Amino acid sequence: MRRSRKVKILATIGPASSSEEMIRKLFEAGADVFRINMSHTDHPLMRELVRRIRAVETELGRPIGILADLQGPKLRVGKFANGKETLELGQEFTLDDNPAPGDAKRVHLPHPEILASVQPGHRLLIDDGKLELKAVKCDGKSIVCTVIAGKGISDRKGVSLPDTELPVGALTEKDRADLDAVLATGVDWVALSFIQRPEDLAEARKIARGRALLMSKIEKPQAVARLAEIIELSDALMVARGDLGVEMPLESVPGIQKQITRAARRAGKPVVVATQMLESMISAPVPTRAEVSDVSIAVFEGADAIMLSAESAAGEYPVEAVSMMNRIAERVEQDPTYPGIINAQRSEPEATGADAISLASRQIAETLKLSAIITYTASGTTGLRAARERPQVPIIALSPVVETARRLSLVWGTHCVVTEDAFDLDDMVDRACRIAFEENFGRPGDRVIITAGVPLRTPGATNMLRIAYIGAEGRGGA
């Protein structure tokens, strides 16, 4: 099944889309990778969802990626005696370590790390920013605040801290248990929530031990400030615009989205744009014009993937949402301005043999108008380098490792095929040409360009580039 676009679609599965039949429909509508949100999924259900996705993968014969999204630290206020309170602008309101039910003057904050870290002048945003407090006095046991904006507060509402760096890691006890569970099922990607600093990745990477790739969700100002360091230690990034828009001014988010997307592209790391892309399709069969424009901007920016959350997980029109996102992406990539915009953002290659080969293969393929770039990749690195170039022609990533093909299903422009490793150069050319023919990327007489490492089966040694004709019945020829 060949896609008619290069950007990938990541669909969250949930109550509206968790059956095997619905997963198949979502894939056929355009989903390339499925997200399991561990905030709402227990371990037995998670294992069953993975089983269903793998069953669809086997049935359709195409590698499908799975992303497990860890919840991360959830910071919430305690409960109120009346369930909720109405505050006045300018009044004092205290968050403290007293577990007694709250009132209009105070509430319990069951997070000593917040009480110890917030300083006078820091903002505290309650309930996704609907209530804004400003700290005026802190003693480690309580935070006396002034109400800056908003009035309502109620039981267990979330707390965001845009000005405060907490001395805790990104993994909670729940996250550690969830991480062990998802790794045991063989998921391909793990998303880490509320990353603040590069060190937050260390524990997860130690636990993962290469069994899954790590995606850092950028949703805090502290992460934006240390973006370059986080990119270096991450396998991929997600622009998590929901919490990012709570902790930073909304008008800053579009620019930050561009900064993150372009920085990830320069580094050759996949980047996903997420949150509210087709939000109105939770309850409507068509999106707003603004949402269509929002999706198109991410595609024009060259993001590797665009993501649906509640639209596909709990909405009334999950298949229609995926289909709409697919149509938007296809139309954008057919727009005459698209190649120029993508080319204008291209970075200089890094000084490595693999990057030089990837650059050369793109230039040759576009100059000679070849049908495809075909890359042999065991670890996935060569496929990533080919995608970093954002070529106009399709990329066929051939791998003997099914896990590699699944991971690359998130990566821009890559059509992944699981195949046995070639046993010599002639077999490598024949196999590449035959697959290009069988997967409808070329016809007899068309030319393709092949990259690989010699000697064969040497990971990370991409050093060969070859142009070949697709012969009769897909056989290769020099």
From TrEMBL:
PROSITE patterns per the UniProt record, alphabetical: PYRUVATE_KINASE
Organism phylogeny: Bacteria, Pseudomonadati, Pseudomonadota, Alphaproteobacteria, Hyphomicrobiales
Keywords for the protein's UniProt record, in alphabetical order: ATP-binding, Glycolysis, Kinase, Magnesium, Metal-binding, Nucleotide-binding, Pyruvate, Transferase
E.C. number: 2.7.1.40
Pathway: Carbohydrate degradation; glycolysis; pyruvate from D-glyceraldehyde 3-phosphate: step 5/5
Catalytic activity: pyruvate + ATP = phosphoenolpyruvate + ADP + H(+)
Domain Pyruvate kinase C-terminal as annotated: residue spans: 355-467
UniProt keyword ATP-binding present: yes
Claim: Glycoprotein is one of the keywords in the record: no
Top-rank taxon: Bacteria
Cofactor: K(+)
Protein name per the record: Pyruvate kinase
Domain Pyruvate kinase barrel, residue spans: 5-322
GO terms assigned for molecular function: ATP binding; kinase activity; magnesium ion binding; potassium ion binding; pyruvate kinase activity
Annotated organism of origin: Mesorhizobium zhangyense
Recorded family membership: Belongs to the pyruvate kinase family.
